[in-house]
Write a structure and sequence with these properties.
single chain; about 400 residues; alpha/beta; Aspartate Aminotransferase, domain 1; Aspartate Aminotransferase, domain 2; 2 domains; 13 strands; about 40% helix; about 15% strand; binds glutamine
Length: about 400
C-alpha cells in the first residue's frame, strides 16, 4: 500500500466541524453564530499595547515558556482573585492559545494506555487531543436539564457514573468550567466530588477555564486548583482570547504544579518555540485592566445571551439556558430534519445563519443529532440580523401564517 497517506492518528479524527461551519458560512454570506469569536472590537488599551510593543521592536522570540511580564501578570491575577500563591517561574507556561496549552499538557503527561475522563458533551478539540496524545478517553455524560424545569436548572453529572469512569489507569480528567457547549458552571460541590476521585486515583485535573470571566445570574467561578488537595495535581488552562476578544492572537497559558511544568515546557518548546512576543507584552497590559472591565464584559454578554435566548425561543428552538461562556445549546427536534448536520446545512445555505451541529460535541453522533449550538459573542445588530433571517424557519406542523 502507498505510504503517501496520513498517519493512523490523523485518520482517527475529522477536521473541525466548528471551523468548517465558519468556512461554509463565508461561502454563503450567512450570519456566523457558529465558531465562537467576537465580531466587535478588542479593548483599545490592549491593541495600543500590541502596536507599541511592535514599534519598540519586541519582535524576536520571547523566552520559550513566556515573557516574564505576562507570566508575572498571570500568577499575580490568579493569586489576587483566588488566594492561591502561584510562582510564575515554576508554574506558568505561555503557549500559542489555550488550544496549544491543552495539547502540550496532554502530550507532556499522557502515555499510551493512560485513560482520560472527559465530560460529554465536550469542546470538540478534546477528542483529537486524546488521540494525538495517545490517551484512551472515558466519557461521562453531562445530563441535560429538562428545559421546562424552573429557573436555575443546569446540566449535571451522576457522581456514580463519574466514579465508575475512574480506575488505576486514569491519568487525568478534563474539566471545562464555565463550559462550552452547555454553558454549565461547575459548582464547588461538584468540583469537590471530582477532586475526591482525583485524589483517590492519583489523577491530574486538566481544567480549561478560558470562560472564567463570562458568568451570569450570580454564578461564581471556582478554579479547580483551589479545591482542597488539588493545587499540586491541577493544570489550569486559560488565555487572552475570550476575556479580551483577541481570538486571533493565539496567546494562552497553563498554570501547573512545579512537578509537571518541565514536561509541559519541553513539549511546548518543540511544538511552537513560543507565542508571539509583542502580543505577550500586550497580554500583560490586558491582565492589568481594572476590575470594572470584567464586570462590563459579563454584563455585556448577559445582555447578548438574553437577546439570543428570546430570538431562538420565538423561532421555536428549545434552549438550554447558559450560566457561563457564550453559547446556547438548543434542541431542534421540532423542525423535523433527519439530523443536526442536515439542519445546520439547511440553516446556513437557505436561511443564512450558521450554527454548530450538536454531534460535534459527542463521541456518538446519535446523541447530538437533535442539538445545535449557537454563539452570541456578537454585536447586537448581528443578532438582530440573525433574527430577521430566522423568520424563514418553520417547525413541522406549525402554520405560521
Ligand atoms: N472555542 C470556540 C468555539 O467553540 C472557537 C473554537 C476554535 O475554532 N478554536 O467555537
Amino acid at each position: 500500500m502507498s505510504k503517501l497517506i496520513g498517519s493512523k492518528k490523523a485518520t482517527q479524527f475529522t477536521e473541525s466541524v466548528i471551523r468548517e461551519m465558519t468556512r461554509l458560512n463565508d461561502l454563503h454570506g450567512g450570519v456566523n453564530l457558529s465558531q465562537g469569536f467576537p465580531d466587535f472590537a478588542a479593548p483599545a488599551a490592549v491593541k495600543d499595547a500590541a502596536i507599541a510593543a511592535i514599534n519598540a521592536d519586541v519582535n524576536q522570540y520571547a523566552v520559550t515558556w513566556g515573557a516574564p511580564p505576562l507570566r508575572d501578570a498571570v500568577a499575580r491575577e490568579f493569586t489576587r482573585r483566588y488566594g492561591l500563591p502561584i510562582a510564575a517561574d515554576e508554574q506558568v507556561t505561555v503557549c500559542c492559545g489555550s488550544t496549544e496549552a491543552m495539547i502540550s499538557t496532554m502530550m507532556a503527561i499522557i502515555d499510551p494506555g493512560d485513560e482520560v475522563v472527559v465530560f460529554e458533551p465536550f469542546y470538540e478539540n478534546y477528542g483529537p487531543d486524546a488521540i494525538l496524545s495517545g490517551a484512551t478517553p472515558r466519557y461521562v455524560t453531562l445530563h441535560e436539564p429538562d428545559p421546562s424545569t424552573p429557573l436555575g436548572a443546569d446540566w449535571t453529572f451522576d457522581p456514580d457514573e463519574l466514579a465508575a469512569a475512574f480506575n488505576n489507569r486514569t491519568k487525568a480528567i478534563i474539566i471545562n468550567t464555565p463550559n462550552n457547549p452547555t454553558g454549565k458552571v461547575f459548582t464547588r460541590q461538584e468540583l469537590e466530588t471530582i477532586a475526591a476521585l482525583c485524589r483517590k486515583w492519583d489523577a491530574i485535573a486538566i481544567s480549561d477555564e478560558i470562560y472564567e470571566h463570562i458568568l451570569y445570574d450570580g454564578h461564581r467561578h471556582v478554579p479547580v486548583a483551589t479545591i482542597e488537595g488539588m493545587a499540586d495535581r491541577t493544570v489550569t488552562i486559560n488565555g487572552l482570547s475570550k476575556t479580551y476578544s483577541v481570538t486571533g492572537w493565539r496567546v494562552g497559558w497553563s498554570i501547573s504544579p512545579p512537578s509537571l511544568t518541565g514536561a509541559i515546557r519541553k513539549v511546548h518548546d518543540f511544538l511552537t518555540v513560543g507565542a508571539p512576543a509583542p502580543l505577550q507584552e500586550a497580554g500583560a497590559v490586558a491582565l492589568g485592566l481594572p476590575d470594572q472591565y470584567y464586570l462590563d464584559l459579563a454584563a455585556r454578554y448577559r445582555r447578548l445571551r438574553d437577546i439570543l435566548l428570546e430570538v431562538l425561543e420565538r423561532h421555536h428552538f428549545t434552549c438550554y439556558k447558559p450560566y457561563g461562556a457564550y453559547y446556547i445549546m438548543t434542541d431542534i427536534s421540532v423542525f423535523g430534519f433527519s439530523d443536526d448536520v442536515e439542519f445546520a446545512r439547511y440553516l446556513v445555505k437557505d436561511v443564512g445563519v450558521a450554527a454548530v451541529p450538536g454531534s460535534s460535541f459527542y463521541t456518538n453522533s446519535a446523541r447530538g443529532r437533535t442539538k445545535l449550538r449557537f454563539c452570541y459573542c456578537k454585536r447586537e445588530e448581528t443578532l438582530v440580523e440573525a433574527d430577521r433571517r430566522l423568520e424563514k424557519l418553520a417547525p413541522v406542523g406549525v402554520n405560521l401564517r
